């Protein structure tokens, strides 16, 4: 199975400041089709997860532009350009290249 | 708009069984990759298993901890996904979510609110 490792596991951010989360995979997530099969999810308190980024860097409609996914192969990052109060929750990366799908441990983001 | 609603959770003794349902609207189940994900109390997300669309063979895959004990199926007439949980263990205590991509996608765009399963004597 592909192991996903996130860092840091917790983050406290001042509103308006940037934030960054790292996600590393034990195997390359770059498919022969040229896409990286890496997704990012945010789980707000008491809610199911919601999709933030798919295929490494693509934002679904409705996701604010302050969220940006980057990286390729085994190293990925989620960056929030200016954190807002509504961004609190736990962020997960997940590899979608192989079955079983595997998630990172999660990064808890709190507001200072 | 896709809507998913899980039901069937509850309290069950170790060794017992349960059937979870995920009622879907806004999509045709047979055309979708339908996945179950669980979350133990205070823990992270864990992929449980999925059933592929009919176009992709309609086959199922399971995570190692549940293989042989859990079973995923769907009833197209009811547009409902099922997860049968057998030989339940305390470690299976979790919120169980069903999730599916939008048409043509592979990421999990759509999630139900989840249903809680508690395995305890």
- Helix-strand topology string of chain A: EEEEEEEEEE
Number of strands of chain A: 10
Instruction: Describe the largest sheet of chain A.
Output: 6 strands, mixed
The number of helical elements of chain A comes to 0
* Strand content range of chain B: over 45%
Summarize the biggest pleated sheet of chain B: 7 strands, mixed
Low-confidence stretches of chain B: none
Counting helices, strands and paired strands, the structural category of chain A is mainly beta
Instruction: Assign a percent range to the helix content of chain B.
Output: under 10%
Radius of gyration of chain A: 13 Å
The chain pair forming the largest interface, with residue counts per chain, is:
A-B, 24 and 22 residues
Strand content of chain A: over 45%
Rg over C-alpha atoms of chain B, rounded to the nearest angstrom = 14 Å
Distance between the termini of chain B: 40 Å
What is the SS-derived class of chain B?
A: mainly beta
Terminal CA distance of chain A: 36 Å
Order of helices and strands of chain B: EEEEEEEEEEE
Overall residue-averaged pLDDT value of chain A: 97
Number of helices of chain B: 0
What would your notes on this structure say?
The complex is a heterodimer of chains A (112) and B (121). With 112 residues, chain A is an all-beta fold. Chain A has no helices and 10 strands. Chain A has strands at 4-7, 10-13, 19-25, 38-43, 50-53, 67-72, 75-80, 89-95, 102-103, 107-111. In chain A, strands 2, 4, 5, 8, 9 and 10 form a 6-stranded mixed sheet that branches. In chain A, strands 1-3-7-6 form a 4-stranded antiparallel sheet, with no helix packed on it. Chain A starts with a strand and ends with a strand. Chain B contains no helices and 11 strands. Chain B is globular. In chain B, the strands form 2 sheets. In chain B, strands 2, 4, 5, 6, 9, 10 and 11 form a 7-stranded mixed sheet that branches. In chain B, strands 1-3-8-7 form a 4-stranded antiparallel sheet, with no helix packed on it. Chain B is mainly beta. The model of chain B has no long low-confidence stretch (mean pLDDT 96). Classes of the chains: A mainly beta (112), B mainly beta (121). At the A-B interface, strand 4, strand 8 and strand 9 of A face strand 5 of B.
